[in-house]
Design a protein that fits this description.
Chains A, B: Its cofactor is Mg(2+). The structure is a homodimer. By secondary structure, the first copy, chain A, is α/β, with parallel strands linked by helices. Chain A has 13 helices and 16 strands. Chain A has 2 domains: 140 residues, HAD superfamily/HAD-like (Rossmann fold, 3-Layer(aba) Sandwich); 115 residues, Rossmann fold, CATH 3.40.50. The first copy, chain A, has a 7-stranded parallel β-sheet, sandwiched between helices. A 5-stranded parallel β-sheet of chain A has the order 8-7-9-10-13.
Chain lengths: 306, 306
């Protein structure tokens, strides 16, 4: 129904929405925590949802943590979660390479130690982790030693990203049979105080430009994140709620997968941006209009406690 | 006249073309040399053009050499040229910042020592040259010390490109008054044997993605390279010939500036690609169809010796 989206959620409406879903997917940063601080009330929301028999999952584009690292962080911040409930792009990209690509061979990894661990957990070896400094001249770069059994380039967040890594990725990707996968396209990692640092999207764009190829991406808004949850647990899209702070990733994922969507204002996106998308008349931007919004997920507490 | 473009140049037609121009602009790599080898006959072509009273200029997107370095390389390969005749993007980006932007302040440089030298030659100081390794955590990156008098970010080829440089560029570019300039958008540097390494375009794309801003670029096909020549020497566009091996940079520059254009097949682009552009019916691609082509610029020798 036109005009019925982007509605502020409270009171009876919140109760109705929660009654209409069996599963809730939460983004993490900007939704249940900010940096190293839990959003006040968020641990209790998660706890009450579970008490009401809802399945709860955490889906994040951050590729720098394993599921175990997430559970540890959540525990420190007062959340009760198990590894099974956590879907980060370090884990999901390993699953993607294993189950969708059925990769036979190694990965050239531009990424983190967490990605290495998640790859190894599904039996995929990697090469490339850590610094890779420049040496020699252009002809040396073009003839840099490559490992013959590398069959995929995987790009995630990598603080050691360098020209040499970009070059090595290009040399692997000029092989005909080399797959090309990225964890996500987030252009910036927002930090407290309105600052930000470059995100994985910048690194992926550099590699794509060099390789003149486009990577398949695993993270939100690509539907693989949801498929990953749905393949392990029974999740009916129409009875699932996606809660996030970003219109272009979280809400877009929900729209792409036919989920109900809830924007929370404790992170990146604003109601004004959602309304601008709604009024734009641009069909792609309609996917970036949430069904509902709240100031904070703590606004769900009355409906869960009532 | 439709159908009269992309004509093979020889015999009388070559004589007519040369008689119709006063100035000839040459791209360098793939046109007058390949790597460290002169194209056979190319030094003699340049010499004879000058003997016939033609002004000759060298315009290159390569940002790793000063004009002096170019003249030295040309001398080694048997070409007779002066610094005044050479227009590389290291030099042209310094001129652009000085004369077009009228920059008051420093440059944060992602680039080469040659770029530093050309900037200093016009009185612009830089910061950023050389390696910049990662340290600390995300909050340290967002709060990396910045120099207050930096008023422009300039991106050229930089083998020390790193995540920290990308981050530093982002932090400078979030300042309201920071200019953003790139030397060129070439995505790859082609080498002998069909290999290639990543070009400046990859680095620029990464910075643009992080900054969510588009850089002004100085190099071909941007017309600034031609304006740079034309502002120092009297060059009438209609009586000027652009000779290059790349359709997307050299020939496009010629089209953008109303020059006559000649594709030489000793480098990157092919006649088939030129013909595909011509037949595409796409107006942007018509700029990537040369007026004429030769196998090598040595094919001009008979017309010059006759």
């Amino acid at each position: 129904m036109a005009g019925s989206k982007c509605v502020r959620l409270s009171g009876e409406l919140a109760k109705q929405l929660l009654a209409s879903v069996d599963s809730v997917l939460f983004d993490c940063d900007g939704v249940i925590w900010r940096g190293d601080q839990a959003i006040p009330g968020a641990p209790r929301v998660i706890e009450l949802l579970k008490e009401h028999g809802k399945k709860v999952f955490f889906v994040t584009n951050n590729s720098t943590k394993t599921r175990k690292m997430y559970v540890d962080k959540m525990s420190t911040l007062g959340f009760n979660a198990s590894e099974d409930e956590v879907f980060g792009t370090a884990y999901c990209s390993a699953i993607y390479l294993k189950t969708v690509c059925k990769l036979q061979g190694k990965v050239y990894l531009i990424g983190s130690n967490a990605m290495k661990q998640e790859l190894e957990a599904v039996g995929i070896q990697q090469t490339g982790l850590g610094p890779d400094h420049i040496f020699g001249k252009q002809t040396d770069w073009a003839n840099v030693p490559l490992e013959p059994d590398v069959k995929a380039v995987l790009v995630g967040f990598d603080e050691h990203f360098s020209y040499m890594k970009l070059n090595r990725a290009l040399q692997y990707l000029t092989r005909m049979d080399c797959l090309f996968v990225g964890t996500n396209r987030d252009t910036r990692l927002p930090l407290e105080g309105g600052t930000a640092v470059p995100g994985t999207g910048c690194l992926l764009q550099a590699v794509e430009t060099a390789a003149q190829r486009q990577a398949a991406t695993v993270g939100k808004p690509s539907r693989f994140m949801f498929d990953c949850v749905a393949s392990k647990f029974h999740v009916e899209p129409g009875r699932c709620l996606m809660v996030g702070d970003r219109l272009d990733t979280d809400i877009m994922l929900g729209s792409n997968c036919g989920l109900k969507t809830l924007l929370t204002l404790t992170g990146v996106s604003t109601v004004a941006e959602a309304e601008a998308n709604q009024k734009s008349g641009c069909s792609e931007r309609q996917g970036m209009v949430p069904d509902y919004y709240v100031e904070s997920i703590a606004d769900l507490l009355p409906a869960l406690q009532g």
